Amino acid sequence: MESVSTKDNEKMTPRKRKRDETTSSKISKTEEISSETCLDQPGDQSIHEVVNDEPSTLPAVHYDPDTTEPISCSLKSLDELLSWKRNEASPFNVATVPLASRLPPLDRCPRRTLVSHDMMGGYLEDRFIQGAEQEMPYAFYHWEYIDIFNYFSHQMVTIPPVVWTNAAHKHGVLSIGTFITEWTDGAKICEAFLADEESYRAAADKLVQISYCYGFDGWLINIENVLSETAVKNTGPFLRYLTDQMHERVPGSVVIWYDSVLKNGSLNWQNELNDDNRMFFDACDGIFTNYNWTEQSLERMKSYSAAQGRFADIYVGVDVFARGKVIGGKFETNKALELIRKYELSTAIFAPGWVYECHEKADFRQNQDKFWSLLSEYLYIHRPSSSLPFISSFCQGFGKSLYWRGQVEMERSWFNLHAQEIQPLYLSENMEKGGWLKSRGCSEDAWIGGSSLMVEGVIPSGLPEVCARIFSLHVPLATKTFVSFVYKPPVGVKVSLELKTIDVPLCTFNGTEEIASTSVFPQALAEDNQLVEQFVQNCGRWTSDGWTSRCFLLKMIGCSLREVCIRLSRDEGDEDVSFNCRIGEIMFLDAESLHAPLQSVQGICVNDVVWQKVASNEHEHEHGHTMKVLLNATLRWQYSTQQVRHFRIHWRHLRGPDPRIRSGPLTVIGRSYSTLYRVVELEVPAAPGLIELVVEPVSREGFRVPEDRWGRRTLSYSSSGNP
């Protein structure tokens, strides 16, 4: 497999990321593998630390050696794999988002789509678990079209960065890593771990433990080197053992073999499933074929006896870079998919980041939307299937600024896929008489996060309105369902909602067939409606800045929400009308939840403290530069992550050397999307001092959590040799 080289008005302090290469009552995975325990820190006591010049002892593979910020990484050798220990794993790289339900589920999808991301070697800005500063990053957001996301690199054990696994899981997509050996060095590795049953079981056990620990869903096995007679004899049993153990430990997981080695151990890409590679296919969940297939290859697989009943497990490879003698690729990848679907096979789309690597970065969104729009005819639209609430502000996980309720909270470019919300359908549709309709992500303005949904087009003469479907889903509604819709109304066009529902008895299907639905056109509630007043009270007042908020109440029994559509109608006349409508957020809540109490943050503790002293050029005196004191520390706490959008992390100065200086105000220093946060390079007053670190939960609905339910921990510190 080949790859290409190529805040409430409070402002968060910007930090440039370096580009070096380097809950519930149950105990969470992050707590199990933490280096220190919170039980050593009673909640009613301040923590005391001594400021020192000692270097960080945190493992450099998991923490940036300069800043100590947490990073995702791979394992580069067999020794690293076999010596891997769970208690030495990174707690920050553990996925916290469970795999969401969707329709059709993977096992009912007869023609699946796998994406192998292969982005410039991997572990770029996406390795920074708490986010990075980047002008225009690569991100994937067409999750509704795919079933499996494979994070690919040429490092031996490629562990998906947690930001990708959480984003995939949020949309019901499996996230799998890569185990790869290549060429001469790869052959030596295979001779070692495929030498006998004990050896291959030891390697497989570690792969299973890593997947289970970090919360991702399986492996692509990519052996691209010659195998000896002994090694190839043990490859089938290795795959079977790995697959069985993965299924047992991680239900719903998959192990997929890449088409490379043959049953005789030679390296010879077949570009199809046949007798020479069938033994590997029979031992695992599927095969990812090489890219140089022909229609005759597809015909042979369609009639091949070993493929019968398993067409969905044959992932026909498509190299988007179109290297070699291939069908399709680039913006003609749809030609390859047309043939693959003709023979009812699955597909593996390799390196769709071509739209990013080989084009202007400023045109990334436009090119990515074009690429997937061309493929959409041959892909299923998977429907998120969940209970209420259903909420999305359309954030794609990056932006030019970070917004909260229409206000800029942080004014700089940023990238963090943890922030990506449930993605809408991105459509492009041409109509008769010159009409057209398109939806796209836009970072020029947002309600929450880094982007909003822009619905734009032309209502042609003779047509009173157009309708944009923004979600296909499966969400059972409450007897009373409260709906909030935030948008910026376009000039000369009326905006309204159309919701499509079906009866619950029809919602038990798991297939791909369409079901007749009923359209509902909800009417907006008055501002003095009791539920609206309660909603506004929960959210707090906000400055409109052109945003319009409308609330609705659905009273339905035994119904499930099937589609969410935006209707755009002309105000008057019959001429062509152009429009641009920015959608900020849509929420569907059980009306009873408007009165539900919000829980408190519990058990906040501080671990893994590292101090740094650096020269300051801002304050000079006769003896030279003063020294800045920087605090680095890990915060942990307890809270149900299913109830929150994110956590804001604050700090403030309580006391220092000069008693005349008053305590400082709370200042936001970052966001966390789990119950874990690494404070990085926080400048604090010179020792001795006392500061407070504060964790504010932000509910999924955006409701304000009273300050008395935030988590707080004070930390006192002194210089070496001083009490």
UniProtKB/TrEMBL annotation:
It is an enzyme of class 3 (hydrolase). Residues 1-32 have a biased composition (Basic and acidic residues). Keywords: Cytoplasm, Glycosidase, Hydrolase. Its main location: cytoplasm. Endoglycosidase that releases N-glycans from glycoproteins by cleaving the beta-1,4-glycosidic bond in the N,N'-diacetylchitobiose core. Involved in the processing of free oligosaccharides in the cytosol. Belongs to the glycosyl hydrolase 85 family. This is Cytosolic endo-beta-N-acetylglucosaminidase. It comes from Culter alburnus (Topmouth culter).
